[in-house]
Inverse folding.
């Protein structure tokens, strides 16, 4: 290293430490744009919520809307389907949690905790086993059947039989009007 | 220094030689000397002007010119017109966006019109014509350019666009031939422009009560189009001051370190 | 000057690692203790600045490539997406675009410094030639990169420059059969992958633009290695005689390079934040249209002098040869300069020709930016811009092929100082020699 006079070591060191610190802060601040550019862009975020018109869905029918590249099942349940779902006891369910992103994490999987209006079942249409898309109105429980490994869901989208570990997730949503929902 | 004299000589000789011949009457006049609030390192967009400019674009220009790189949701962004989320949603909903195929796979209705759906904020502003050929067919063979980056795409920028918009109505010299389907505009290269004068007094009724003179309409739409070409300008300038201030501090510290390290050399 | 390493690992782990991959030793020897002449001035900081520029271009380029679409249909819009929607995309875009300009500003200063102080002369000939190769790859990289936004200038610059190869048709008019295309057209279509600049061209230009900066990085490694064999030259042009003439690179030149780099970055920031389109061309904001040629095709500023040279020659093949010859000429500089004295500080005659050369490059650059049919009106006489361009081109070649060899032989240099140390320590002010 340099053989300079050992004059004022504390003052000399301070300058170097100050410079090094400011330079390091600069590098850190400069690094942020490189990291943030990989986050979803504003074009992607503009699609972070979707409004869906449900006025054309008949009783007993289902439409599939896309939200954040996931299929969302919007199903208009018949009175029979609602009654069936309400009759099930939570202790009989393989997954006792509601998996409803509008509620607390520990909410139990009663039918009431799975819907906002009993007539409308709105769930993310991705099987919680390995991600296939379940088929509507199939299986023993009147709900869904996943063709990949045979998981079966009931009329509240809860897993009843098969390898899937969790009930179909309920996305965050709200009714803007009786015929329009906003997902996300 | 010895190089100064040759440089001065070259400048003196080159100076008059560089002045172009102004006698040619088809060359464009230089853009008008116009002041905008967004010019200069401290310049910002006039928020109300941006909103009025959007109105002028929508009610006048969008009949022929697309603005297809601007998405509705950006109309609510910082540094832009600053419409509220509700206003953005309403503006988007007014737009007719070409719809995806319906359940029967159709794109057109029985009258041959393209099926549309109301816009959402994520949509880009829709184009007035389906394609270039349709645009030309409706405009005597001329293609109205997309305006998303028009201010950056023209030498002279905002002043040039303003000059074009306010440059109509002048009487051409008797020797000048105005071609068919063209209009005289001395600020346009060749002076024969395909666009008819777009702005007239009172062409729009401003919701904030500002008088809609041609000059005002031109200023507002140019402000809006400048924003459309450069949506991040305000953030860019603000960050520029922060970064350069930081760098000046760092340069000062580095200089002091440099003097310290080298103090005992020589 | 490769001496013995004085690196001592500080702990057990460092010692273990040093025995297996002595990378810390290499860093210590080349960037910390490396003996560097004590009289290097500001013009010697541009090597470090260039390394910074290369790193900035690579890092911003890689993140931009995450969002860019290299197809004719998608390229222009993907760049607009970067500018409008990608988080800080506008910043990354402006840094990358203006970074290219800053890179060339630095490289030209670096090259002129090498000429002025005789850094190309023995024993640094290979160092100089590596530098010329790096410059050529930089020009290629910049040309490829400019095509990517797929604006009008992008497309037409690509068309004009790749069409240069068609001049080779004059050498072999037909490759097989009297209707077959010539050598030049065949090569050009091979470059294009099509019958004109199009999608295949854009895709391969993107691939090569991503590749070449890493080739530059490798060449820079060789360049620094070649430098470290004899060690740095210095403004006096005289050899280092002993340790009294040098200081360790760290902290003396790390802090000096750091300071000047910071000033350079301030200039860079002024461009990026307050004049981001200053070096750009408005025509590149019009999407590429193969059916409409812009009235005035111009390359970026750093290629303008060569553009002026090319256009000053009416015959296409000769113009192309002049263009390539101007760059190839640089390779021979170590042997064209016959002077025994390295630094032009002590060469009063050559110094003036050097400055004339600098002015010549600036004038050629200006001429390259003008329309081809430009005419100067000098007191009633009309002179086509082609004539000063031809004169400038002539001086460019004369400077290397006539002036350098002849002046080196006939001039009387000023007396050289005894050593770096005596020259530096002779001054009474306690300031660094500039």
């Amino acid at each position: 290293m340099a053989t300079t006079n050992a004059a004022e070591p504390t003052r000399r060191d301070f300058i170097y430490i100050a410079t090094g610190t400011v330079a390091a802060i600069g590098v850190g601040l400069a690094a942020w744009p490189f990291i943030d550019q990989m986050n979803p862009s504003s074009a992607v975020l503009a699609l972070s919520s979707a409004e869906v018109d449900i006025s054309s869905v008949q009783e007993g029918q289902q439409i599939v809307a896309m939200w954040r590249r996931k299929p969302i099942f919007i199903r208009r349940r018949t009175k029979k389907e609602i009654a069936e779902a309400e009759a099930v006891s939570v202790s009989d369910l393989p997954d006792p949690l509601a998996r409803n992103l509008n509620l607390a994490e520990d909410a139990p999987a009663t039918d009431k905790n799975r819907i906002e209006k009993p007539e409308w079942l709105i769930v993310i249409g991705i099987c919680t086993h390995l991600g296939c898309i379940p088929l509507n109105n199939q299986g023993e429980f009147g709900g869904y059947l996943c063709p990949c490994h045979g998981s079966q869901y009931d009329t509240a989208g809860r897993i009843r039989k098969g390898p899937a570990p969790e009930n179909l997730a309920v996305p965050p949503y709200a009714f803007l009007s009786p015929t329009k929902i906003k997902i996300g | 220094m010895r190089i100064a004299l040759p440089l001065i000589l070259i400048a003196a000789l080159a100076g008059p030689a560089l002045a172009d011949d102004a006698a040619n009457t088809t060359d464009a006049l230089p853009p008008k000397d116009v002041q905008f609030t967004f010019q200069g390192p401290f310049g910002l967009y006039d928020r109300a002007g941006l909103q009025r400019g959007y109105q002028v674009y929508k009610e006048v220009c969008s009949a022929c010119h697309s603005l297809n790189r601007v998405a509705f949701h950006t109309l609510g962004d910082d540094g832009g017109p600053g419409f509220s989320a509700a206003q953005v949603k309403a503006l988007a909903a007014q737009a007719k966006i070409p719809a995806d195929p319906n359940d029967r796979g159709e794109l057109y209705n029985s009258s041959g019109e393209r099926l549309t759906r109301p816009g959402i904020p994520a949509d880009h502003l829709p184009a007035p014509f389906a394609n270039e050929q349709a645009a030309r067919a409706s405009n005597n063979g001329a293609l109205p350019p997309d305006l998303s980056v028009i201010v950056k795409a023209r030498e002279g920028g905002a002043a040039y666009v303003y000059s074009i918009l306010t440059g109509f109505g002048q009487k051409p010299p008797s020797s000048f031939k105005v071609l068919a389907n063209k209009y005289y505009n001395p600020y346009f290269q060749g002076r024969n422009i395909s666009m008819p004068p777009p702005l007239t007094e009172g062409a729009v009724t401003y919701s904030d009560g500002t008088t809609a003179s041609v000059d005002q309409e031109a200023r507002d739409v140019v402000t809006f189009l400048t924003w459309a070409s450069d949506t991040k300008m305000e953030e860019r300038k603000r960050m520029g001051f922060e970064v350069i201030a930081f760098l000046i501090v760092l340069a000062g510290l580095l200089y002091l370190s440099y003097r310290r390290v080298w103090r005992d050399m020589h | 000057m490769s001496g013995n390493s004085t690196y001592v690992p500080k702990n057990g782990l460092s010692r273990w690692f040093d025995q297996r991959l002595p990378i810390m030793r290499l860093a210590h020897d080349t960037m910390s203790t490396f003996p560097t002449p004590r009289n290097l001035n500001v013009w010697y900081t541009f090597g470090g600045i260039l390394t910074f520029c290369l790193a900035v271009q690579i890092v911003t380029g890689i993140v931009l490539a995450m969002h860019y679409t290299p197809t004719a249909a998608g390229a222009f819009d993907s760049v607009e997406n970067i500018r409008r929607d990608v988080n800080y995309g506008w910043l990354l875009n402006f840094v990358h675009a203006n970074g290219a300009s800053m890179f060339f500003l630095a490289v030209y200063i670096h090259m002129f410094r090498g000429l002025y102080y005789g850094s190309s002369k023995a024993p640094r000939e290979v160092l100089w030639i590596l530098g010329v190769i790096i410059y050529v790859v930089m020009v290629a990289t910049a040309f490829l990169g400019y095509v990517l936004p797929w604006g009008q200038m992008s497309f037409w610059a690509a068309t004009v420059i790749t069409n240069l190869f068609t001049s080779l048709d004059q050498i072999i008019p037909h490759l097989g059969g009297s209707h077959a295309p010539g050598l030049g057209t065949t090569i050009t279509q091979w470059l294009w992958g099509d019958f004109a600049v199009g999608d295949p061209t854009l895709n391969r230009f993107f691939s090569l633009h991503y590749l070449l900066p890493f080739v530059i990085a490798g060449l820079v490694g060789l360049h620094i290695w070649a430098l470290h064999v004899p060690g740095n030259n210095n403004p006096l042009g005289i050899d280092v005689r002993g340790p009294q003439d040098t200081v360790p690179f760290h902290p003396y030149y790390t802090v000096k390079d750091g300071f000047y780099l910071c000033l350079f970055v301030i200039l860079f920031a002024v461009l990026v934040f307050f004049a981001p389109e200053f070096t750009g061309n408005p025509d590149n904001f019009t999407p590429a249209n193969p059916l409409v040629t812009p009235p005035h095709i111009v390359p970026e500023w750093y290629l303008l002098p060569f553009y002026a040279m090319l256009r000053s020659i009416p015959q296409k093949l000769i113009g192309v040869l002049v263009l390539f010859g101007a760059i190839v000429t640089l390779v021979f500089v170590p042997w064209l300069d016959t002077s025994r004295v390295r630094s032009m500080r002590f060469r009063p005659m050559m110094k003036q020709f050097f400055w004339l050369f600098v002015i010549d490059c600036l004038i050629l650059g200006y001429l390259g930016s003008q329309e081809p049919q430009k005419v100067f009106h000098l007191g009633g006489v009309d002179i086509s811009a082609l004539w000063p361009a031809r004169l400038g081109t002539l001086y460019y070649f004369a400077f290397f092929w006539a002036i350098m060899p002849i002046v080196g032989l006939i001039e009387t240099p000023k007396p050289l100082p005894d050593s770096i140390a005596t020259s530096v320590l002779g001054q009474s002010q306690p300031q660094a020699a500039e």
